[in-house]
Design brief:
The structure is a single chain. The chain is of the alpha+beta class. The protein is built from 19 helices and 21 strands. Helix 15 crosses helix 19. The radius of gyration is 22 Å and the shape is globular.
């Protein structure tokens, strides 16, 4: 079978993977891996988008040098961030990073002016301070010259596809994350755009995952010495691709896409936009083939990653396996945090913030790296139980266990503690969830797979799933009660 190429861009690294479908077995080869580090300039935190495009070209070159001619390619990435294209077709400035502080306070001001009910009722999207709507509102408040010269709005995969093909399209799964897309009307929401002072003309046609959206520019083919490669839209929000790759056999399943962010929810046929969903701050993001992802964002392993960076700055270097080993030896439930407290959103000295949180909530602050990592992982596992219970309540479904996918499942301690916390089995795998979802959407578009359910069955047959059974139920039930009391989370 011919190979196809998937680019999977995360908030800290990216990779190009070559996929083959051989007698209903998926074979994946990593061609190229690269860092994706935001760049601070003055008071702004930005993405180095041209470096990312350079790395995408390197992936094509490495495919060429391996003797491969991909039959197609697609890109998935994180959500909400974007670039603006000017009248001359060129990018206006580097895209801002969603953790940049230019949106501080903007969500609160926008909600006060437009009302929470209006925004959620028209979009069904969870309120997060870095959502695209608030990034654009921040530019408008600042009278940014970027908006004055902008002709088109493109999210990160849209933008990179434009660099590759010269064609501009907005992809559905990513468009829904902006809090500017109306899923009930299946279009960009003009009243919301006009209310924040943004021209609807910036926003183009919305294409579905699996749509063919161009082929490589002739100039790029000449530069790289390669032939024409068709370009497809995957579910370009990486969580959309990860959920497409969940190897579920049952129609009603719960998933956790685990990485820098943890995203937990279930797949539904139509968005749930009601008072309860708004109160619980759930989101309805577009999925593949007419589905929606009812889910909630959880801060995730960002807290651990940022803690490790803080220790490195202080001259203490640890690998992640070393930190996990230290956590396993630390006392259980010494301290707990609410992972989604706003104090953990921005980059900085995360161990100091964890200690500050614990002191402010009357706990003994964790002192050693092992104690801090254990605090992070136990708190995440308990937050997973909380969100899983809310997902069941909101969806009206009962789940027999939890599918965990993504790079975070390499943390076996987190997988086991998640099973312990929810009191149900955790099925962990595959690690390359987003990239596999990207690949199978391309194969479905090319009639190599019939639909998403055949794709999920093939994924399950191609990659191992590790089962974690719950343990120490009473201990974790008691810890959950302590966690709820400390955090004051509603039920």
């Amino acid at each position: 079978m011919p190979s196809i190429l998937a680019y999977d861009l995360g908030a800290s690294s990216g990779r190009a993977l070559l996929g083959r479908l051989n007698n209903r077995v998926i074979e994946v080869e990593e061609l190229h891996r690269f860092g994706n580090d935001p760049v601070g300039v003055g008071d702004r935190l930005q993405w180095d988008i041209l470096r990312l495009f350079h790395e995408i070209k390197q992936g094509l070159l490495k495919a060429k040098h391996a003797g491969e001619t991909p039959a197609s390619l697609a890109i998935d990435s994180w959500a909400v961030d974007f670039g603006l294209i000017g009248r001359d077709g060129e990018l206006l400035g580097n895209p801002y990073h969603y953790r940049d502080r230019h949106t501080d306070g903007v969500m609160e001001r926008t909600k006060a002016r437009l009302t929470t009910e209006m925004i959620f009722g028209r979009t069904g999207i969870q309120f997060l301070p870095f959502n695209t709507i608030y990034q654009l509102a921040a530019l408008k408040e600042a009278n940014s010259p970027l908006l004055e010269g902008a002709e088109r709005f493109l999210m990160i995969p849209d933008l990179l596809r434009y660099f590759l093909t010269g064609e501009m399209h907005n992809e559905f799964s990513n468009a829904t994350t902006t809090q500017l897309y109306n899923p009930l009307e299946a279009r960009w929401d003009q009243p919301l755009l006009e209310a924040i002072g943004i021209s609807p003309s910036l926003f183009g046609d919305v294409v579905q995952p699996g749509a063919r959206v161009g082929q490589l520019r002739p100039s790029l083919m000449e530069e790289l010495g390669i032939g024409a490669v068709p370009v497809y839209a995957a579910a370009e929000h990486d969580t959309g691709s990860a959920v497409a790759a969940v190897p579920a056999l049952e129609r009603d399943f719960a998933y956790l896409s685990c990485g820098t962010w943890s995203l937990m929810g279930t797949e539904i046929d139509r968005p749930i936009i009601n008072e309860l969903a708004q109160e619980l701050n759930f989101t309805n993001e577009g999925g593949v083939y007419g589905t929606y992802r009812l889910l909630k964002n959880i801060m995730g392993l960002w807290i651990l990653q940022e803690s490790r960076r803080a220790w490195e700055r202080a001259g203490q270097s640890y690998t992640f396996p070393e930190l996990i080993a230290l956590a396993e030896k630390a006392p259980a439930f010494g301290a707990l945090i609410e992972p989604d407290d706003p104090m953990f959103l921005h980059a900085g000295d995360m161990p100091a913030r964890i200690r500050q949180y614990c002191v402010s909530t009357g706990q003994t602050a964790p002192a050693t790296p092992g104690e801090i990592v254990r605090c992070i992982l136990e708190s995440l596992a308990l937050k997973y139980r909380y969100v899983l219970e809310l997902t069941e309540r909101l969806s009206g479904k009962t789940f027999s266990g939890l599918h965990m996918v993504g790079g975070g499942i390499q943390n076996v301690l987190l997988c086991q503690w998640s099973a312990n916390a929810i009191g149900k089995p955790v099925w962990a795998g595959p690690v390359e969830g987003s990239a596999l979802g990207n690949l199978v959407v391309q194969w479905i578009a090319q009639d190599e797979l019939s639909d998403i359910w055949e794709a999920r069955k093939v994924i399950r047959e191609s990659f191992p799933v590790v089962v974690y059974e719950p343990q120490e139920r009473q201990l974790w039930d008691d810890a959950y009660g302590k966690f709820r009391a400390l955090t004051g989370l509603i039920q």
